[in-house]
Inverse folding.
């Protein structure tokens, strides 16, 4: 995900991925028995799917990204779903307090220059009765209960236009414009970055107003995908060792003539390769870590790596898949690449180091060797040794990045 894709709604998407079944909203229910209390609940996954449906419906109603829309929905499950939906759709929300009165509401709508009105049925009734936004508002959307979401019926005839989009319906790509109304269409999934926000939309070419869209988003997986670290919830610890993880689909194999898959045993110039890179703190500069061979029918890969000491900071991982050098020459083309969706936070280690020798009460003779020792728990296993001659006001480095728990030091004169 690039910075241009940044959207406050991504916080919900991220939480839906990390905690899909965790309750996001509790709303007091309305039972017939006033002594019986219960709550209606939406999980993060349900709220994500619901807001995606609303975002798609808003754009399908003719409201354009960047336009202003009045929102008049009571505090409810629908309100939270709608709030995330307008951000996903790129619509500018105009929240109005009904407590300002009829005249105040009309004036506020006029001054907001909103062109759309998204509201519950009662608010639409009041809009028509009092003439709010007359001649100004162009699009109108009625928000109903989550449990009464409208579903389209069947029975359409003629040809269908089938389209898909990778994220929230902000852009659509036509799959075909002449699908027969047989209830099925064979589709070759396009080469694209992985997306968890894909939808399919069908439009009747004879009656363009007859439109239906997937009830919930689905995932399109790219030929190569960075699996870990990928999200902000994958927080890393500086100087710790992790396994960078990526996966491939069968679309990425070691083809030379698009018919034969080659493993390393066939010769080092035949297999396709993965180049692993990292960048830090949002930089666009990438540092190469390693090059790994691809293997036929192996779909998951790992690479052990020590996280750099950059806390507090962040990093991203990028994997580039290249075809083999035997068929394509010394500089084979990039088949596909993917990078972490977010800048993954890097925090400081929380381990404990205890100096055991010297630890007070000893005399060191200058220009002699002295064995410095320590114990450590919960650290990276790599250490810098420093000494001070002024009670810790300043330190001088003796040695850096050693992996043992002792070091023989030639004491300075």
């Amino acid at each position: 995900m690039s910075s241009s894709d940044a959207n406050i709604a991504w916080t919900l998407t991220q939480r839906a991925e990390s905690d899909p079944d965790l309750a996001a909203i509790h709303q007091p229910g309305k039972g017939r028995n006033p002594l019986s209390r219960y709550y209606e609940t939406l999980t993060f996954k349900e709220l994500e799917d619901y807001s995606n449906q609303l975002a798609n419906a808003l754009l399908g109603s003719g409201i354009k990204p960047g336009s202003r829309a009045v929102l008049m929905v009571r505090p409810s499950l629908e309100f939270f779903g709608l709030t995330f939906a307008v951000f996903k759709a790129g619509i500018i929300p105009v929240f109005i307090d009904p407590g300002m009165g009829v005249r105040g509401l009309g004036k506020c709508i006029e001054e907001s220059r909103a062109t759309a009105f998204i509201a519950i049925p009662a608010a639409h009734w009041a809009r028509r009765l009092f003439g709010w936004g007359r001649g100004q508002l162009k699009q109108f959307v009625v928000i109903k209960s989550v449990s009464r979401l409208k579903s389209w019926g069947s029975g359409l005839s003629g040809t269908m236009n089938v389209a898909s989009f990778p994220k929230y319906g902000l852009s659509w790509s036509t799959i075909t414009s002449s699908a027969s109304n047989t209830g099925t269409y064979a589709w070759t999934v396009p080469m694209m970055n992985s997306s968890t926000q894909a939808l399919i939309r069908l439009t009747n070419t004879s009656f363009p107003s007859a439109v239906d869209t997937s009830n919930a988003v689905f995932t399109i997986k790219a030929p190569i995908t960075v699996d870990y670290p990928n999200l902000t919830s994958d927080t890393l610890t500086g100087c710790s060792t992790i396994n960078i993880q990526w996966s491939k689909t069968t679309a990425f194999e070691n083809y030379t003539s698009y018919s034969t898959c080659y493993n390393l045993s066939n010769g080092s110039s035949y297999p396709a390769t993965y180049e692993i890179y990292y960048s830090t703190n949002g930089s666009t500069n990438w540092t190469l870590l390693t090059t790994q061979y691809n293997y036929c029918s192996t779909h998951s890969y790992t690479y052990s790596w020590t996280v750099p000491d950059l806390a507090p900071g962040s990093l991203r991982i990028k994997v580039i898949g290249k075809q083999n050098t035997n068929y394509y020459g010394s500089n084979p083309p990039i088949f596909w690449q993917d990078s972490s969706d977010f800048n993954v936070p890097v925090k400081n280690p929380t381990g404990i180091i205890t100096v055991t020798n010297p630890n007070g009460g000893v005399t060191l003779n200058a220009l002699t060797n002295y064995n410095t020792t320590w114990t450590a728990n919960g650290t990276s296993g790599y250490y810098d040794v420093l000494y001070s001659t002024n009670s810790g006001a300043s330190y001088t480095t003796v040695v850096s990045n050693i992996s043992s728990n002792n070091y023989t030091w030639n004491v300075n004169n």
